[in-house]
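User: Hey, my collaborator sent me this sequence without any context and asked if I could get a structure. I don't really work with proteins. Can you help?
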Amino acid sequence: MTRGFKEFFIADRDSIEMSILYPTEEAMPNSSLAHYLTLAIKNFGTPRSAYVMNREGIDFEALFERLKKSEANKEPHALLGASYSYIPLLEEMRAREISFSLPPGSRLFDTGGFKTKSNAPTLDDFYTDISRAFGVPRDMCINMYGMTELSTQFYDQGNVVCPSVKFGPHWIKTRVVNPVTGRELPQGERGVLAHCDLAHFNIVTSILTEDAGIATADGFKLLGRADGNDARGCSMAVEEFLNAAQI
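Assistant: No problem. I've predicted the 3D structure and written it out in structure-token form, which is a compact way to encode the shape of the chain:
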């Protein structure tokens, strides 16, 4: 995880101040994303990095104060969370009529998407909204695609155009296949994603997913869940966590 995160998200920096829009690993011990973010903040977060979501939900006051300080100090800031984590945050910011202009080098991380939720924003609207809300250009709004069943994650180079092209390190290969025949499809043709992850040790290396996608010259475009398959993942988990906090 750390090598890919450094190369594709941290990139030109050794560390960055992080605000984590996701529960801690202690609060969600069975969440692979909670573990992932624990490693991220431990290995690449500055001493001021912190979680801003607890059992009561997002701590808006603490987060907004942190972002104001980053603006004043001209220190880059990174927000990281599930895609759904940003929805209540954007709603709160609209209600307060506030926005931020984070310093150059700031970046936004999301993962999980919105699956098949009927009221979900389009990807283009989502990245436009978070870019405007925090003053971070869309080429610094990075989406990570991962699975509990994989040891390696995929990233993009921002979301100026949606859906973005996903790619990973050299030890993982993705094919787009026909779900009935299992045959690999040519570039541009929709199928389901099959990953071969050599980072797996002592377990099967190849995973046939229920995610739809199309192959490109540089990687693949993720199109969401294949028709007829149930939604799952970290965005749904954080939505359930936040809903429980309101009970």
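In plain terms: The mean pLDDT is 92. You can pass these tokens on to your collaborator as they are.
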